[in-house]
Design brief:
Distance between the termini: 45 Å
Strand order of the largest sheet: 1-2
Number of helices: 3
Structural class: mainly alpha
Number of strands: 2
Radius of gyration: 19 Å
Helix content: 55-70%
Number of domains: 1
Shape: elongated
């Protein structure tokens, strides 16, 4: 099992099964000097950002906004 350093200093000992084509695609995305684990982490961060942008687009199109103070009260913050 291979060990990979994670950002917070932990060591991850996990294996992920990939098809040969997925492995090749992931390898093409890997920047020089970066590990495949770092590349996957970058892809996850990019996906989260894209999802946030899609969610914000839906909110903008819907046009329903609640003032922050009102939202805090509703959420009990």
């Amino acid at each position: 099992m291979s060990e990979t350093k994670v950002n917070d200093g932990e060591i991850a000992n996990k294996r992920v099964a990939l098809t040969p084509s997925t492995w090749a695609d992931l390898s093409l995305l890997k920047a020089p000097g970066r590990s495949l684990g770092e590349t996957v982490a970058d892809l996850i961060a990019e996906h989260k950002l894209m999802q946030l942008e899609r969610d914000l687009d839906v909110i903008r199109k819907d046009g329903r906004y609640i003032p922050w103070e009102e939202a805090k009260k509703e959420l009990g913050l």
